[in-house]
Predict the structure.
Amino acid sequence: MSNPGGHPAGEQEDMTRRAFLGAVGFGALTATLGAVAIGGIRYMFPNVLYEPSNRLKIGGPDRFGAGTVTFIADKKVFIRRVPEGFQAISAVCTHLGCTVNWTGTTFHCPCHGSVYEPDGKVIAGPAPRTLEHFSIELARDGQMVVDLSKVIDASEFYKA
Ligand code: FES
């Protein structure tokens, strides 16, 4: 039988097999290196959940008039100014977590009717305890800062 290329048939078949195996090996190597590279890049940018800050700047003491209760809605906190000083009082009801409203004389929970005194003590309803109070301090720029991660006793005041 004649062979136009001059190579024996077995040798040609061998070259084809060698080329095929080379291509498979190169593909596997490329895929492995690609996976390692992607892993390395992801390692440099980990999945981090950035939580909002617990420190809330509320402005200088002069911003709050004497005898006022000011609601900061996005942080669910009331700033109360009385002759003794300032208090940062949570608006989260201690019963099941609804947001309480300031009526002008008391805090009232619309969900199950708990009522709290202006300093946050419970006077009616199912709420089991006083509204939480947060620490207030003065920043270097003269603004007051509420630390929402620092719960303090309801009898404490920040004196400006
Ligand atoms: Fe406020 Fe139930 S959640 S009284």
